[in-house]
Write a structure and sequence with these properties.
- The chain is of the alpha/beta class and about 130 residues long.
- The chain contains two helices and eight strands.
- The strands form two sheets. Strands 1-4-3-2 form a four-stranded mixed beta sheet, covered by helices on one side.
- The longest helix is centred in the first third of the chain and has 12 residues.
- It is globular and about 40 Å long.
- It starts with 9 loop residues before the first strand and ends with a strand.
- About 15% of the residues are buried.
Amino acid sequence: MAQTPAILNHIAVYVVDLNKSTSFYQSVFSLKIIPEPFKDGKHTWFTLGKAGALHLIEGAKSNQTFDRNDHLCFSVPSIDEFIKLLKSKNIQFEDWAGKAGAINLRVDGVKQIYFKDPNGHWLEVNDAKQ
């Protein structure tokens, strides 16, 4: 009998300032908050639809350095429209090589950009079709 594959339940991101990070993920990605059981002011849970949930947890140390290979990726319908949003919020982005304001073109034609959240965690946004 074949084992049923596991499904992703959630991704947890450790943050310094919960309010700042909650606002960032809400305003940049339009994520919707869902109830969380702890009610201790240290957690924000967002739905990611069928992909599961994103849990922000307050308590991280500031000034951490993260590797770009360790990133969360979100897909959007239009990179150009998303870049307009980033520019309106003064959020700098770059391509994989680190060139500021540049868009990376993946070998399969998918456009990608990279930037950091308020805690220095790397984020990728691309226009891959799901």
